[in-house]
Amino acid sequence: MQYAAWKGATLSEEKKVNDGDVVKDIGYRDQPLSETEISEMKSREEWNIKNPANEVTLVKNLRETELVPREYRNTSARFMKLTGERRLQPHLSELPPLGRSVNHRHTTEAVIYIIKGSGYSTIGYDGEVEQRVEWEEGDLFGIPLWAWHQHINTSETETVRYLAVQDTFMIKALGLHQIERHPRQ
Ligand SMILES: [Fe+2]
Fold this sequence. Notes:
It is a single chain. This protein has two domains: 1-30, no CATH class; 31-181, Jelly Rolls, CATH 2.60.120.10. It has two helices and 14 strands. It has helices spanning 41-50, 168-173; strands at 14-16, 22-24, 54-56, 68-70, 75-82, 89-95, 104-106, 110-116, 118-124, 131-136, 140-143, 148-153, 160-166, 179-181. Strands 3, 4, 5, 6, 8, 11 and 13 form a seven-stranded mixed sheet that branches. A three-stranded antiparallel sheet has the order 10-9-12, with no helix packed on it. Mean pLDDT is 87; it is low at 1-12. The structure holds fe (ii) ion. Fe (ii) ion binds at residues 104, 106, 110, 143, 149.
């Protein structure tokens, strides 16, 4: 079978390539949201519609970039889609003084760079002893796949700001994107 150049094809459209050959265009499909009781996908989707990712080439000065409240996580945040990125998505998050993010897990991997502030994260799998990772400005650490984690700002006066880079676009394209919040917060 020969594949023609399908300029302007719409999703799910049936294409006649050669006489007798009818194929379905395979394109990106939205993934159904998880229906587990502890899924965070619905809150995330609603927030993302209200606060779409900034599609940009360069983000200047991450310390000062303006963020918007991300209520369902107890943080402020900004998501970005950098030019041409098909796999990785960065976002900035900020915790208020003594703030604690929601304890959650996701099917994306994450690396986190602390832009300012200090505190710690708890990281662990069900049935295992939770790890406590202390961090401060300039530090880098990782969150393993599907591990529960929570970020805590230990300062009474200063905010914490971090950059997280995750393989969100790729995991979404594979139909594997899930986020859950821990029953205990
Ligand atoms: Fe996370």
